[in-house]
Specification:
Blueprint (H helix, E strand, L loop, with lengths): L6 E4 L5 E6 L5 E5 H21 L11 E4 L14 E4 L8 E4 L4 E2 L3
Length: 106
């Protein structure tokens, strides 16, 4: 068996096993099922926290709206958001609202 190449198969107990070779050439065997169980437990715990509200999520980034230049709302209504006008003719199709004007992000 080549070093570092995992082989995945089923043991007589029908559980998936991973066999690998360590840096000394020794066989390493671990149960794939136990690793998956650990991941599943973490996902269940995260789902519970998101459901009961104890896990807070913060999103960041810029919301960008796509449309026609004629349909672009005033910059004062879109502070901090972007607007991509595919029919813009000045070469800058994507502009951002600074709360007053539509500006090109440098």
């Amino acid at each position: 068996m080549a070093k570092g190449i995992p082989v995945i198969g089923r043991a007589p107990d029908k559980k998936a096993k991973i066999i690998n070779v360590d840096e000394l050439g020794n066989l390493k065997v671990s149960q794939l099922e136990s690793k998956l169980d650990g991941i599943e437990n973490k996902l269940v715990a995260l789902e519970q926290k998101l459901t009961d509200g104890s896990q807070k999520v913060t999103l960041s980034g810029t919301d960008v709206v796509i449309g026609l230049l004629a349909d672009r709302p005033p910059a004062s209504e879109m502070r901090g958001r972007g607007y991509y006008a595919w029919d813009e003719t000045d070469g800058h199709k994507l502009k951002y609202s600074d709360g007053t004007d539509w500006v090109v992000n440098q």
